[in-house]
Design goal:
Blueprint: H1 17-41, E1 43-44, H2 46-63, E2 78-81, H3 87-96, H4 136-150, E3 156-161, H5 168-179, E4 185-191, E5 194-195, E6 198-199, H6 200-203, H7 209-215, E7 219-224, H8 228-240, E8 246-251, H9 259-262, E9 270-271, H10 274-286
Parallel strand pairs: 2-3, 3-4, 4-8, 7-8
Antiparallel strand pairs: 1-9, 5-6
Helix pairs in contact: 1-2, 1-3, 1-10, 2-3, 2-8, 4-5
The chain binds thiamine diphosphate and magnesium ion.
């Protein structure tokens, strides 16, 4: 049932240009929110946020059944952020959708702020408390089974990172998801080739990522996670595949959209001077669209 493929170049013409344009505009807004958050305290997981902005935009602004006015709607699709330190990206898209007030963004990472550097489920719109890596997929499996048993049929999306694939619990959950044929479960892994202490390939390689998921009985696709077109197509295909859980392996560039952050060698945690956040914002504004 599982298959490895790339959607690159396929079917782009079948996607309405206005849809792609509107999602590009949204993704840029999300990136702006990320920079405004980082500017507040002068630091944060900005590289991850900018790298994952297109993934969260495609999910929240297009694919997921999610109503920002009805956060407790029982039939909503669930987005589970395993990687709590990517909270900056989640808050940015929630702010774009009006769930989090824009004025609050600058409090990211500050004492008493709801916008913690590792996401907590007490913040509106956040489904699980992340931070301790390797637990999100197990929770996603439980929720996907719960969706089936309750007859609600919501979908569950789990966002993982490549460093997180080194956690053994992830693979126990992967086995269970395939065993129960959880076709309402879609996982996306951000392969940015980096973890806290350096390059994933140097510390403990996780490649070949898609082959591993295929071997575990998942339907696997590999795409450019900074291409809105590829994300929209891959999510649509994942939705249509039956009888197995689905993995989308997303290759992304840390710092995407801000040249000097894209070129940074150590990007796991970024701390720069206040005037540099201003130039980051200017670089973003100058970029397309
Ligand atoms: C169980 C657990 N072990 C260690 C950590 C510390 N930690 C936080 S982020 C991180 C890096 C994980 O890799 P990845 O998410 O790919 O890093 P990034 O791409 O964000 O640089 C680690 C080891 C943690 N949060 N949880
Ligand atoms: Mg990584």
């Amino acid at each position: 049932m599982s298959e490895i493929r790339s959607t690159e170049g396929e079917g782009r013409e079948s996607l309405p240009p206005e849809l792609i344009h509107s999602l590009h505009v949204r993704a840029k807004n999300v990136r702006r929110n990320i920079l405004l958050m980082a500017k507040g305290k002068g630091q944060g997981y900005v590289g991850q946020g900018l790298g994952a902005a297109d993934i969260l935009t495609a999910l929240y602004c297009h694919e997921m059944r999610f109503d920002p006015q009805l956060l407790d709607w029982p039939d909503r699709d669930r987005f589970l952020l395993s990687t709590g330190h990517y909270s900056i990206a989640l808050f940015a898209v929630l702010a774009e959708l009006g769930v989090i007030p824009r004025e609050e963004l600058s409090s990211y990472g500050a004492d008493e702020s709801r916008l913690e550097m590792s996401a907590c489920e007490t913040t509106p719109g956040v489904e699980i408390t992340g931070g301790s890596l390797g637990h999100g997929l197990s929770q996603a499996v439980g929720m996907a089974i719960g969706s089936r048993l309750s007859g609600r049929n919501f979908r569950v999306y789990n966002f993982l990172s490549d460093g997180e694939l080194q956690e053994g619990a992830t693979w126990e959950a992967a086995m269970a998801a395939a065993h129960y044929k959880l076709d309402n479960l879609v996982a996306l892994v951000d392969v940015n080739e980096t973890q806290a202490d350096g390059k994933v390939a140097d510390i403990m390689t996780v490649e070949p990522v898609a082959d591993k998921w295929k071997a575990f009985g998942w339907y696997a696709q590999t795409i450019n996670g900074n291409s809105i077109q590829e994300l929209v197509l891959a999510l649509s295909l994942a939705r249509s595949v039956k009888d197995s859980p689905k993995m989308i392996v997303c290759h992304t560039l840390m710092g995407k959209g801000v040249l000097f952050l894209e070129q940074r060698q150590k990007a796991h945690f970024i701390r720069v001077d206040p005037d540099e956040w201003e130039s980051a914002l200017s670089q973003l504004e100058a970029s397309n669209p």
